[in-house]
Amino acid sequence: MFTFIDENGCKVDLRFDDGPFEIEPKHVLVFVCYKGKWLCTINKKRGIEFPGGKVEPGETLEEAAIREVYEETAVHISDLKWFAYYVVHDKVPFCKAVFTGKVERIDEFVEEYETLGMTWLTTEELINHPHLSFYMKDRGMKKMLQEVKHHERQW
């Protein structure tokens, strides 16, 4: 387990196994690398971040991951693989399941209420981007970027 304090001062436990979970994941985050660049969404309020969001009632984690990526970026993904999960010990603790996915198709983006679309960034561009979302700046994100490279070699 990798533990750190996030940008909001909350303790976060990050694990790279498939459970058991201390808190059931109700949120998803998805890492998609295509032609050497990471798929990111441009959140109107928070800035650049990986696509993700809340699981809707009756939806599996995988279905939520696919839906959120499409809603936020207009990118269809497949071949989801469980990658990690993390628990944020906020006033109301919550857990995010983290997946990797592969690009199937890219549609034209139609603006949604919370995002301005997608951007593709190299790892260096991602780490140094001036408009990152708060969670993209923490030690956990850097750790996940390191681990995803390691895991993708194994897949």
From TrEMBL:
InterPro entries according to UniProt: Nudix_hydrolase (IPR020476), NUDIX_hydrolase-like_dom_sf (IPR015797), NUDIX_hydrolase_dom (IPR000086), Nudix_YtkD (IPR014078)
GO MF, one annotated term: hydrolase activity
Coiled-coil segments: none
Keyword presence, Phosphoprotein: no
PROSITE patterns: NUDIX
Hydrolase as UniProt keyword: yes
The protein's name in its UniProt record: NUDIX domain-containing protein
